[in-house]
Amino acid sequence: MIKWGSLFSSEYVNALYNAVWANLMGDFRFVCLTDDDSGFVGGIESFPIPDIGCSPQMWRLGAWPKLGVFLADLHGLTGRALFVDLDTFICGDLTQFMDHPRSFIGIDVWNNWRPIRVDKPEDESLGTGLFAFNLEEHTQIVERFQADPQVAFDAADIEQVWVEEHASSMEYWPVD
Q1: Is residue 130 helix, strand or coil?
Q2: Model pTM?
Q3: pLDDT tens by residue, 103-117
Q4: Does residue 83 contact residue 133 with C-beta atoms inside 8 Å?
Q5: Closest by alpha carbon to 85, among 112, 106, 61, 60?
């Protein structure tokens, strides 16, 4: 997860940590990329949000800094990652999300929630509020962004459109 600025307090991070702890079987590390880790409860690991070249406008509009999770070396983290947005409620077992065999899997917002892209009616569109991926396997997403961040920002309305267009072997969570 990523927390920056003042929109979400440490209480959101703590609540999400507690929900994950109660709903994920087995060992895991709970990591928050942040500009301020004050108020975090024990068990939450925090690291600085990587600088991937986001302009102030990119920090304000969309979640472009989220692309930093795709860096080849994200603070030495390895293995399987489940990214969960801070405004997400956990209502049940998360184990199946971590154990899913696909290299990258995310939310299909068109068929499960609301349409994001009007240019893709009745089609699938990725939502990055909850996605699982193998760290170090999708570095092209952030590398292509870093090649020219402004062009990426102008080409994709929000970061999840960029991820959808540049992820390899992406699939969507089954509705069940």
Answers
A1: strand
A2: 0.88
A3: 888 887 655 444 444
A4: yes
A5: 106
